[in-house]
Amino acid sequence: MKKTVISVIAAFVCTQLLAVNILVDTKGKGPAVPSTMYGIFFEDINFAADGGLYAEMVKNRSFEFPQSLMGWSSFGGVEVRNDGPFERNPHYVRLTDPGHRSKFTMLVNEGFFGYDFQEGASYHFSVWARACSEPASLRVELADPSADGETQVLAQQQIKVEGSEWKKYEVSLTSGQSVKDGRLRIFLEKTGGAADIEHVSLFPAETWNGGPLRKDLAQALYDLHPGVLRFPGGCIVEGTEYFDRYQWKNTVGPVENRPLNNNRWNFEFPYRDFPDYFQTGGLGFYEYFVLSEEIGAAPLPVLNVGMVCQFENPDPSVQISADELEEYIQDAVDLVEFANGGVSTKWGSLRAQMGHPEPFGLKYLAIGNEQWGDEYVRHLAPFVKELRAKCPEIQIIGSAGPFPGGEWFDSLWKGMRDLNVDLVDEHYYRDEKWFLDNAGRYDDFPRTGPKVFAGEYACHGKGYKRNHANASLCEAAFMTGLERNADVVPMATYAPLFAHVKGWQWRPDLIWFDNSSSVRTASYYVQQLFSLNKGVQVVPATVGGETIKGNDGIYANAVKDADGSLILKVVNVNESEQPLEASLKGFSASKAEVTTLVLDGGRAENSLENPHLIEPVSSKESVSSGVYKGKVPAKSLVVYRFRK
Ligand code: AHR
């Protein structure tokens, strides 16, 4: 009998995991955590800008797509002309009497994957127009073409166009119903003469801060409290060829005159036949700077280094040489003037005209994206020289190429050290194992020379590249190592940021959306938990004297926050829950605010249909005699905030 009891107890003891004993030494001093530590990277990929964050609902609003009426259906007297009022977007449409062959003259816009109109919501319509001779009358409608086989009109307004001068006409339309696949229709009424129309625009009346951005999507960015905003790419900075590289000067000034650009991702849809992805520049550099300010992030523009995408153009002879860079370098210097210059300077005065006389306080500028080879180092050198001389306030970011290791990476790092850039942009799109194995990547990194900007990263699940729970868990484990080394990695930005569910080229992405709603992925919550709890200074957190980077499946880091609280982040990648004892040396706390993000769903992910599947949960727990005792759920990220 006695023997049986002993063996039951022994079996019980064997199945109980020993607690992991984390010692947080609050008297020990680690690196300062800068405000830039966790940021966001915006690129116009996956319809992130036009059709996404930029709230314009009309596709091909200026008739500048290579097929002028792409996105439009036309009936009756519709003719595309090209001597319009906006020099850099010269196309417009002439609407004339349909004659006896057609009942009416009409243009129908399909929007970006249809129009999502909400019942009771108002929409702001505007159009540039002129009458050809006698006054003309336009009828503008929000319509639902799918209503019982018959088009239903949800809202309607008349516009009287008078005079031969181009003028902007504006009306507001309030939808009588909610529809998912609506259309915008513009009729030329028979009661008047012919009219020319250009830059046809429809925005929801309710936008982010009353500006041109979609409210829910900008709010999602704000809620991340990002320390830095990298924009506008990525590969679109490089372009497929020189002609379609991103040129910031084309994206400022009146929107009507910002020239259309091909989107470098136009031909990269795995499942869409026709390329209709162009950049209007409506979300341009001014808007990026304003957004940065509104969400409290330091702006970090990326400019072309005078090289086009090397993946698309492997032949080096395609690249211009390093002594032909005058225009590119001038663009960089002028951008600093646009952001920081006084209102009497050429570019500073444009910023003021656009509505922001105060400087934007630009501090960081990246030159080049995923370039490689000696050419890149040679191209970057004159930028560094000129920017150091003319813009000493700017920290220059060079690139370590597309991969986080290997020959290109090593030689680029050598080049970046020789040029003495301030930061080097490293990209890691790798699988689960890589993320777990690299939590200590920066522990022994040289503490002199350029710092690291983790400019693009996401765990690309092996065989399953989606925003699934396990990928997010691995990102969290890796991020504990970034944070522990905040002195060498002062900035990190997950990538990419946005994806339209009907127009994506790349995944995983941080936030998915359709035309009216959006979903925050598990990776979003990982980013948010790190960002909201980044603290201001790392303090040593160890197990048995060792930093915690995968010790028995546990990853951890601790920081002090500005308000005096102590934050411990623990990631448990094990299949089982892990008892934890955290000794808070030198810190007297009686309460812990605990935020738990359970990521044990394997391939589970949040979706528009099920957006709350994976979300953080908060609780309050007690601490006694400087020791917190609790359990870290299997496959989870837990953030403990201890208050004195
Ligand atoms: O984030 C998507 C792409 O990944 C970026 O454009 C590029 O820099 C990287 O290859």
Can you characterise this structure?
The protein is an alpha/beta fold and 644 residues long. The chain has eleven helices and 36 strands. Strands 2-14-17-18-19-20-21-22 form an eight-stranded parallel β-barrel, surrounded by six helices. A hairpin with a 2-residue loop joins strand 27 (541-543) and strand 28 (546-547). Helix 5 crosses helix 6, helix 7 packs parallel to helix 8 and helix 10 runs parallel beside helix 11. Alpha-L-arabinofuranose (AHR) binds next to loops.
What is the strand and helix layout of this fold?
Layout: H1 2-15, E1 20-25, E2 38-41, E3 72-75, E4 77-81, E5 92-96, E6 105-109, E7 115-117, E8 122-131, E9 136-144, E10 152-161, E11 167-174, E12 179-188, E13 195-204, H2 215-222, E14 228-231, H3 235-238, E15 261-262, E16 278-279, H4 285-295, E17 298-303, H5 326-340, H6 346-353, E18 364-367, H7 373-390, E19 395-399, H8 407-419, E20 423-430, H9 432-437, E21 451-459, H10 469-484, E22 491-494, E23 498-500, E24 511-513, E25 518-520, H11 522-532, E26 537-539, E27 541-543, E28 546-547, E29 549-551, E30 554-560, E31 566-572, E32 578-585, E33 591-598, E34 617-622, E35 627-632, E36 636-643
Parallel strand pairs: 1-32, 2-14, 2-22, 14-17, 17-18, 18-19, 19-20, 20-21, 21-22, 23-24
Antiparallel strand pairs: 1-27, 3-6, 4-5, 5-13, 6-12, 7-12, 8-11, 8-13, 9-10, 9-12, 15-16, 24-25, 26-30, 27-28, 29-30, 30-31, 31-36, 32-35, 33-34, 33-36
Helix pairs in contact: 5-6, 7-8, 10-11
The structure holds alpha-L-arabinofuranose.
Alpha-L-arabinofuranose (AHR) binds next to loops.
